[in-house]
Write a structure and sequence with these properties.
It is a single chain. By secondary structure, the chain is of the alpha/beta class. The chain has two domains: 295 residues, Aminopeptidase (3-Layer(aba) Sandwich); 116 residues, Alpha-Beta Plaits (2-Layer Sandwich). The chain contains nine helices and 20 strands. The strands form five sheets. Strands 3-4-6-5-7-20-8-18 form an eight-stranded mixed sheet, with helices on one face. The protein is elongated, with a radius of gyration of 24 Å.
């Protein structure tokens, strides 16, 4: 791309188109910085709601880059920083999550090879790639700051607490509500995507999530006289069987909704019938209405089956559809695809097999502005980075971070001059 000057008549100011070679040169210049940041954050992860040292480290790094308006988010360890070019233009949000997972990290990755880094905070690990996300945003900020005199508008850098625990997103959205965003961008490293590929697609690219949380109540008693008790274990077992049957017969099978039952908890002694049984899990869905109706089906089946067994069921407060799917804006998607094709020819894919069945709080930024969310592949069998997210063996190909940075920077610096 030739470096040129576009006159933005509606604003009466000039803004440069940044040459691709300049972006790529900056990424190369800061490569060691990217790895340094990622490695520090990998060694010292913190779980959602407790990212105190993580936030402190990120703010320190921002202070080394330049002057930003930094705003703490009330009731959260999250914060956001603003870079205002003082030239009229669009307001662009760039987001990262900052939390780790309560998982003891394995010293070997999915390919059975020794990891170059293992968490020093025993019992906590960056098992989903958030260390890479933070490193991506920090290097992107350095590049954007270097280029600030050629840019227009505002850039809002969002550091979100507790993506894994769903604790930071609502305070962050509330804190940002008075900022008039034109678009908010985020990306996620993806273990199922070959290293260096970039998944860009419109519409739903991650699932929404609803929680299953119910307590089945009966009447406890001695195991020798089940006739004098009302056994909630049989009721719970029949609830799960009946739900699985209803799943195939009472739902719209053209709409994907996954049912993941993860908890069945009851009793403490082998000879005592318990008073209650707990059932927990999640639903994941690409269509919001399909997710909500599926959750209501579970509630109806559970209520009716429990009644048939002489039991009752109580649904937890969190048994709701909590997070919608991440939905990419069609205009922003088409724009980003053009930009990435220029910067990284042949690396973009829109194969829907890379839609992710996990859920992402990034979906709620859609309340503020159109959103754009991409995946960047980190799967490299030669390095052994093949394990799925949320596992102790999870690892990333650090070389892939350059593509995450390039995609983010290209989107951010081009949005004012191209769209």
């Amino acid at each position: 791309m030739v470096l040129a000057i576009f006159i933005l008549g509606m604003h009466g100011i000039s803004a440069k188109i940044i040459a691709d070679k300049e972006i790529l040169s900056k990424i190369s210049q800061y490569d060691s910085y990217t790895r340094e940041v990622r490695r520090h954050l990998h060694l010292y992860p913190e779980v959602g709601g407790n990212e105190v040292e993580t936030a402190k480290y990120l703010k320190t790094e921002l202070s080394k880059i330049g002057n930003f308006e930094i705003h703490d988010v009330p009731g959260s360890t999250g914060f956001y920083a603003i870079l205002d070019t003082k030239r009229a233009g669009k307001t662009i949000g760039l987001r990262t999550d900052i939390d780790g997972l309560p998982i003891k990290e394995s010293e070997l990755n999915g390919g059975g090879k020794p990891k170059p880094l293992v968490s020093k905070n025993v019992g906590v690990t960056q098992g989903c790639g958030h260390d890479g996300h933070m490193a991506t945003l920090m290097t992107s900020i350095r590049i954007i700051y270097d280029l600030r005199n050629q840019l227009s508008g505002k850039f809002v850098f969002i550091f979100e607490e507790g993506e894994e625990t769903n604790t930071g997103i609502r305070p962050m959205v509330a804190a940002l509500k008075d900022i008039h965003f034109d678009v908010i961008y985020g990306n996620h490293l993806l273990s199922s995507l070959p290293s260096g590929l970039i998944y860009i697609n419109e519409g739903s690219v991650t699932t929404g999530m609803a929680m299953i949380s119910m307590q089945v109540f009966g009447k406890g008693g001695h195991a020798s006289r089940p006739d004098q008790a009302v056994n909630p274990i049989f009721a719970a077992a029949n609830i799960l069987t009946s739900v699985s049957i209803a799943w195939n017969n009472q739902r719209d099978i053209t709409k994907v909704v996954t049912l993941g039952v993860t908890q069945l908890q009851a009793g403490e002694a082998w000879n005592v019938i318990p008073d209650s049984v707990y059932i927990g899990g999640t639903l994941r869905f690409f269509d919001w209405d399909a997710g909500v109706s599926s959750l209501e089906l579970i509630k109806k089946v559970a209520t009716d089956v429990a009644h048939a067994h002489g039991c009752t069921v109580r649904f937890g407060e969190k048994m709701t559809a909590q997070v919608p799917p991440v939905v990419n804006d069609s205009q922003a998607t088409a724009f980003l695809r053009r930009m990435v094709d220029e910067l990284y020819p042949g690396r973009a894919t829109n194969d829907p097999k890379y839609n992710w069945y996990a859920s992402e709080t990034f979906a709620l930024y859609n309340q503020l502005a159109p959103t754009m969310f991409t995946f960047v592949g980190v799967q490299n069998p030669e390095l052994g980075t093949t394990s799925g997210h949320h596992t102790s063996e999870f690892d990333i190909d650090e070389d892939a971070l350059q593509y995450a940075i390039g995609t983010m920077v290209k989107f951010a610096v081009s949005y004012n001059t191209h769209l």
